[in-house]
Design brief:
Number of strands: 4
Mean pLDDT: 90
Order of helices and strands: EHEHEHHE
Distance between the termini: 41 Å
Radius of gyration: 14 Å
Structural class: alpha/beta
Number of helices: 4
Strand content: 15-25%
Strand order of the largest sheet: 2-1-3-4
Helix content: 40-55%
CATH architecture: 3-Layer(aba) Sandwich
Shape: globular
Number of domains: 1
CATH superfamily: NAD(P)-binding Rossmann-like Domain
Amino acid sequence: MGTNVLVTGSNGQLGLTIKELYGLNDEGLNFTFFSKEELDISNNQETTKIFTQNQFDYCINCAAYTNVEQAEVDVDEAFKVNAEGVRVLAHACQLANVVLIHISTDYVFD
């Protein structure tokens, strides 16, 4: 059976890296990948449906609005994905008893 893991934002930098590493997986992890086109995490109904139709143990959220310069222009869209989307995803995980792993950035600052 194994452990079922949902990865959101699977076509972004972090999501693609997890996809690449998936081929090296020998730990009994079953990954399901959703790109932003396949799952809009800010859509409550769509997100909840994914969790009710599947039995995930973990959700790794790699979905994010990452274009910093454009985010200053398109504030509403950046907020929709980076704040509202995370809230919706966290709530869906809570209802389905799924552990959420949220990665907020792919940068390391000193």
